[in-house]
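In response to reviewer comment 3 from the previous cycle, which asked for concrete evidence that the modeling workflow produces usable outputs, we include below a single protein chain processed end to end. The sequence was submitted unchanged, and the resulting structure tokens are shown without manual editing.
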Amino acid sequence: MLAGGGTGGHLFPAIALAEELKRRKPDVEILFVGTKRGLEPKLIPQMGYRLLFLEVRGLRRKVDVRNLLFFYYLARSLRQAKSILEIEKPDVVVGTGGYVSGPPLYCARRLKIPTIIQEQNSYPGLTTRWLAKGADKVFLAYPESKRYFKRQNNLEVVGNPVRCDFNQIDKAQAKKSMKIDQNKKVILILGGSQGSVALNQSILENLALLEGQSWLQIIWQTGERDYSRIKATLDLKNLPITAMSFIQDMGTAYAACDLVVSRAGALTLSEITLCGKPSLLIPYPHAAADHQRHNAEALVKAGAANMIFERDLPGQNLVKRMLGLAQDQKKLESMSAQSIKLGKPDSLHRIVNEILKYINRAEN
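The workflow returned the following structure tokens.
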């Protein structure tokens, strides 16, 4: 059982684990547990996996009347999770974060079912910190995360699991697949799985700078909420931009690009470094414990990325910065070499090895 979701940062690691499990053990039965409010209803069924839902809501980090409903939904989701576990009888429950992973992990421990937690961020989420002490194994992406846990003997730092084919796609083939001229430089713009209003707006306000840039092609993941207004604006102009609300085949998009302009979510940075891509990062300023800034600073310090704070976007001019970087081939090559050094290609295999231990133990 894979429990996690809401955002892509929690869901995509679970998908990567599921795909690798299926590859290495085709007869394994995989069940996802998620929420109807996240990305999982759109993605999981079409991938051929079963998906069950919990009626759970997150706890807001500030005074909010909606927090009064948190405890009602928590109690309800705990009953639902217990019922699912008793019916499905999983050999192991893997939580990849988000509030939806809490009830299955908690109930699994009560029912003596092995549990594994995979934490993506440098500052561990509330669910991870709450349940890590009782978990059989906690996989961390960053060594600095260890200081947030009292129990240390179940922690292992491995990086974030990314699909094993992400860094195996040929650039020329990726460009051909996306109908991009082989001679053009490609910038990939990402605001996270749900898009970034601030990043999107900064680009919209400076579209004039992209006129006549025949050497360039931009792939812009806008997020669903901004897609219609951005598409309507672009339809009135002749610009080297392909806007998409969501990019399903991220491996091909990364392979085709020369520069990534992105938020600094932990999973995105794992994908960027696995593919050895240079990046221009704009950390989300409201992330818990400012962890996106910490994530981005690690890449900047290594020479793999440049960074702009969101508060500086008006003065820095994001479009000018990304055009300048994209035209500096020597700089791109240097950043790419440093980026690939930070990638952790064995993360997925190490986590799946641990999951298979429990599956094989149950079979024997």
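Residues 70-88 form the longest helix (19 residues). We consider this sufficient to address the reviewer's concern, and the full set will be provided in the supplementary archive.
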